[in-house]
Design goal:
Oligomer: single chain
Largest sheet: 4 strands, antiparallel
Helix content: 40-55%
Radius of gyration: 26 Å
Shape: elongated
């Protein structure tokens, strides 16, 4: 009797999931990931809705889950008629609090309703490990390789669901629970750079005469560009906006004392943008704050009162 037969498939894969050699990941809240990228949380949410970014959610109901695909590689949802007696090919226990990809349909709902009861959890790595074990057992079965390849193609499209669902389970994933895999940040930065580069090229640049400069640009300094494609000042302003979101502050009604909280947040989360060796340690923050205020992107609640005193 093999170890798999002795422990059963669920026990075998539970032991596998708990091994220390599994890849470690950093799951970042949307606001924290947005701060690192210099964008808004809504940008990441939109990427998730557009199926360009995996967004993760914690497992809220621990228990035995099934991958609803049969031993021919066909998802139950595509079978016509009753699926009674059609057993899922894989089962596994998901632990409370571990992160898995939220299905795209659930992301669309959570954007509108701010919370959603998960229809399931997508766990591609778990599926692939099961398939490898399944193939070893099915070596002598004709078409086993073709079925395995078919199942692999469904690993990111079919979610794991509770094997014994409860109609009374009302656990819901809230918007603030969503996470981004830190390993996706480099790709997102490259994507932002490509978008910024494309947007920065004027449509009539190829037809302008050499030596001529636009009157709009006369006397305007060219700010330094960093590796994200955005100006440093714009990066700083976006970081301040992300900090306001992370601290649940109203961007256009910043109360007394909240400005200092934003400065502290920016120095902690984006020190490369805000730390300064000058006598005024907040000089970089204040420059970005003033620019954001002139653009009406960050507004002190009592700004009008201060202006009338001058």
């Amino acid at each position: 009797m093999t170890k798999t037969e002795l422990m059963g498939p669920t026990g075998f894969w539970l032991e596998t999931l708990l091994k220390d050699d599994q890849p470690k990941r950093e799951y970042l809240p949307l606001a924290a990931a947005a701060a690192r990228l210099g964008c808004e949380s809504d940008y990441l949410l939109d990427e998730g809705v557009a199926r360009k970014l995996d967004l993760y959610a914690p497992v809220l109901r621990e228990g035995l889950y099934a991958w609803p695909v049969n031993d021919r590689g066909i998802p139950h949802a595509t079978l016509v008629g009753s699926i009674d007696g059609v057993a899922p090919v894989f089962h596994a226990r998901l632990q409370y609090g571990e992160y898995a990809v939220l299905p795209f349909a659930d992301i669309e709902k959570i954007k509108i309703e701010r919370s959603v009861k998960p229809s399931g959890y997508i766990c591609p790595e778990l599926v692939l490990r099961h398939i490898d074990e399944w193939q070893q057992v099915q070596q002598q079965v004709e078409q086993a390789t073709a079925v395995a390849d078919l199942m692999k193609r469904r690993a990111k499209g079919v979610a794991w669901v509770l094997a014994h669902p409860s109609v009374t389970d009302a656990s819901a994933v809230r918007l603030e629970m969503l996470r981004v895999d830190g390993n996706d940040l480099p790709r997102l930065r490259e994507q932002q750079l490509a978008q910024s580069t494309a947007a920065a090229v004027p449509s009539d640049a190829a037809h302008s005469n050499p030596g001529q400069s636009s009157q709009k640009d006369e006397g305007r300094a060219s700010p330094a560009e960093d590796d994200s494609g955005l100006t440093t000042l714009e990066e700083q302003i976006r970081a301040i906006e992300a900090g306001a979101d992370a601290l649940n502050l109203k961007r256009k009604a910043i109360e007394r004392g909240e400005k200092k909280k934003l400065l502290t947040w920016c120095l902690e989360h984006r020190p490369e943008l805000f730390e300064s060796n000058s006598e005024r340690g907040d000089s970089k923050f204040m420059e970005a704050w003033k620019k954001a205020s002139r653009q009406d992107r960050i507004i002190s609640k009592h700004r009008g009162t201060y202006a009338n005193r001058k």
